[in-house]
């Protein structure tokens, strides 16, 4: 079960990375979205690290 959860988190991380890559093209327009996506990816990465131990 933990493996499935790790895979789901990896997919979420990839989706957020794609969002960030889109937003980064126009940082002055998407400043708030970049901030939120950065927070979200930090949370997901920390969760992934915690579960992978």
From TrEMBL:
In terms of SUPFAM superfamilies, this protein maps to: BAS1536-like
Q: Quote the Pfam families the UniProt record gives.
A: SpoOE-like
Q: What is this protein called?
A: Aspartyl-phosphate phosphatase Spo0E family protein
Organism (species): Intestinibacter bartlettii
Classification from the root reads: Bacteria, Bacillati, Bacillota, Clostridia, Peptostreptococcales
């Amino acid at each position: 079960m933990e493996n499935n959860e790790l895979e789901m988190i990896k997919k979420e991380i990839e989706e957020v990375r794609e969002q960030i890559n889109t937003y980064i093209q126009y940082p002055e327009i998407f400043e708030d979205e970049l901030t939120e996506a950065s927070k979200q990816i930090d949370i997901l990465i920390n969760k992934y690290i915690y579960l992978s131990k």
